[in-house]
Amino acid sequence: RVLADAAYDSKDHWNRMEELGIEFVANISGCLDPKKRSFGGYRKRGCWSRAEHVKRILEVGREQWKARSVIP
């Protein structure tokens, strides 16, 4: 399991860890307001696990997401 800060929040990091079978959680960087960004791009490029984390942040809030993601 790898927990990373926002500096490692990239498509390449998320996908590579998934390929290696390593659970990867990085602090999601940038604006998550759906009105200000397009989430479709991550799905099109194959960042499914990141997209799920973004979706979860929008549902429960960043602090609750952090608590649930860091402590299994």
Secondary-structure map:
Blueprint: E1 2-4, H1 11-19, E2 24-26, H2 40-44, H3 48-60, H4 62-70
Parallel strand pairs: 1-2
Structure in words:
The chain is mainly alpha-helical. 50% of the residues lie in helices and 8% in strands. The chain has a two-stranded parallel sheet. Strand 1, helix 1 and strand 2 (24-26) form a beta-alpha-beta unit. Helix 3 crosses helix 4. The longest helix is centred in the C-terminal third of the chain and has 13 residues, at 48-60. The radius of gyration is 12 Å and the shape is globular.
Radius of gyration: 12 Å
Shape: globular
In this structure, how is the largest beta sheet organized? Answer: 2 strands, parallel
How far is the N terminus from the C terminus?
Answer: 10 Å
Cross-sheet strand order for the largest sheet: 1-2
How do the SSEs run, as a string of H and E?
EHEHHH
Short description:
With 72 residues, this protein is mainly alpha-helical. It contains four helices and two strands. The mean pLDDT is 81.
Descriptive terms for the model:
single chain, 72 residues, mainly alpha, two-stranded parallel sheet, 8% strand, globular
